């Protein structure tokens, strides 16, 4: 960051000072991240459950009716079942 500031016309020490000042924020952000991760470990299962429920709702409310309008109901249903089976197999293999 110091080099672009220097090229913009800042002096060497001023560019060094501003780039060092901007770098001092990173440890604070790291500590804040550690704190938030420690809090989120207890909330994570509920948040993921909510996200999964939202995805199931979107698929069942929006995508399934749309695929059944075009006259390809059996292929759409087969694709949904194959995708679900693949997801379950990958869950078992990768867990």
What does this structure look like?
- This protein is mostly helical and about 100 residues long.
- The protein has one domain (about 1-95).
- It contains four helices and no strands.
- It has helices at about 1-5, 10-25, 25-65, 75-95.
- The longest helix has about 45 residues, at about 25-65.
- It starts with a helix and ends with a helix.
The protein's oligomeric status is: single chain
**Biggest β-sheet, characterized?**
none
Q: Helix and strand string, N-terminal first? A: HHHH
Whole-number total of structural domains = 1
Shape: elongated
Write the layout of secondary structure elements.
Elements: H1 2-7, H2 12-23, H3 25-67, H4 73-94
List keywords for this structure.
elongated; mainly alpha; 95 residues; 4 helices
Short description:
This protein is an all-alpha fold and 95 residues long. It has helices at 2-7, 12-23, 25-67, 73-94.
